[in-house]
Amino acid sequence: MNGPVPRQPPARRGRDRRAHILPAHPGARHAHGRHTAAVIGGGIAGLAAATALAERGVKVTLYEREPYLGGRAGGWPTRLRDGSPVTMSRGFHAFFRQYYNLRGLLRRTDPALANLTELPDYPLLHADGPRDSFRHVPRTPPWSALGFVALSPSFRSADLRAVDPVAALPLLDVRVPDVYHRLDDVSAHDLLEAIGFPEQARHLAFEVFSRSFFADPRQLSAAEMALMFHIYFLGSAEGLLFDVPRSPYPAALWDPLAAYLEGHGTDIRTGCPVENVAPARDGGFEVAGDGEERRYDAVVLALDTTGLRSLAARSERLADSAWRERMACLRPAPPFLVTRLWLDRPVAPDRPGFLGTSGFGDLDNISVLNLWEDEAARWAARTGGSVVELHAYAVDPAAPRTAQEQQLLHQLHRVYPETRAAKVVDVRHEWREDCPLFSIGGYADRPTVRTADPRLVVAGDAVRTDLPVALMERAATTGFLAANALLKRWGLRGQTLWTVPNRGRTAVLRKAAAWAGHRAV
Prior knowledge:
Blueprint: E1 20-22, E2 36-40, H1 44-55, E3 59-64, E4 75-79, E5 85-89, E6 95-96, H2 100-106, E7 116-118, E8 124-126, E9 131-132, H3 143-151, H4 157-160, H5 165-168, H6 178-183, H7 188-195, H8 202-206, H9 222-234, E10 242-245, H10 249-263, E11 267-270, E12 274-279, E13 285-289, E14 292-296, E15 298-301, H11 305-314, H12 321-328, E16 336-343, E17 354-358, E18 365-368, H13 374-383, E19 386-392, H14 401-415, E20 424-432, E21 456-458, H15 471-489, E22 497-499, H16 507-520
Parallel strand pairs: 2-3, 2-15, 3-11, 8-17, 15-21
Antiparallel strand pairs: 1-22, 4-5, 6-10, 7-10, 8-9, 12-13, 13-14, 16-19, 16-20, 17-18, 18-19
């Protein structure tokens, strides 16, 4: 790209005055040579890496096997039986205020984040009756935790007397990577058992935190769950309310970012899987994709767990044998189901845009898209109907899929009885099995951003990093970290990053947590 170099939007931390900044490493603002990089994977991690590289003048080619960008937060066109063109996706995503680096990526094309809108509440419903809400809970710890307990019907005084405060103290001072050294060999289920977490409140830990990782709590590392508590509740003052895109993901997020990248000279190749990556004789890499081989100075692997394992197996000379052996051990989380229903009538007017559920079979949440997404709202206004989405995480792989789809609809009728009389105008079922599994004791074998070859870096939500980030924010952060590793090698300035605090909020609680840790040892 010729002409003046556009300034990056300033890094922002949100409302939390204790958020942590990672300043950009110094260097030239724009490349004087013609460094080239292949970014393999067009999800959030790949888009973040491509953006940081392209803004510094690196010639980037972005490979994506799907015909759309955004990865698990992407979307594609489809047509309903009534003739309506709509956008389908892999389901609901919450854009939390703690996602500093993801939001920074989106600010490239939407500085005020006008394409996101706030959902006013995050209600949680248990089949036994309790209904919790975060709307009136204070956002700053420890008042957030105390306020939630005081307001929640899931925490009864008799249950609270059974809680072991000593066992719970380590949750009050979570640091990365220390939390993995302490808790990675314990399951999320066993940690809550040791704490004596109230039975009626278990769904708060399992559905809100554990099952966000698409895994059963008995299979999930307690370190990941503890980190989630820290990021969203005990360590951050941003709270648990979140934003959602006003439009389908492509229109709101990725189409504008694709245009931005192309304006910086990026060659975006969607529908183009990469078959092989091999070291070149001159020190770069040969990337085979789209029926041709092209040489690059560096490569960013920004693939999902299955894709990374598969590409590493096909690329026999990539990095070193120890790295390839670790990639061969990667496993995805159990399958999940997203069912989207176009109904011929509205849901009750008091239904929230998003509802977390527990105790309703495999149903984990319900979204009413026409309450916040413009495309769904237009369809609902034109037809008098509604657009409802159901999620089931960590489904038993042996369960018959058709039966699972029918069971989700049955559970919707239990939670929202007015939908029993509704006619299904059309339906889409999306079954996927490509989310990372954060298994017990698996931290040490997860990929890191850097590999044995400094020209080869890795990014994604499965990537291990010494920062308190998770889910979409881990994807964006590791994408920027991967780009920073290459930019530093080339003498170019890096990307400034923010995270939630990497420690407990108060000195007293940190000392208590340290005492509990020594006592456990």
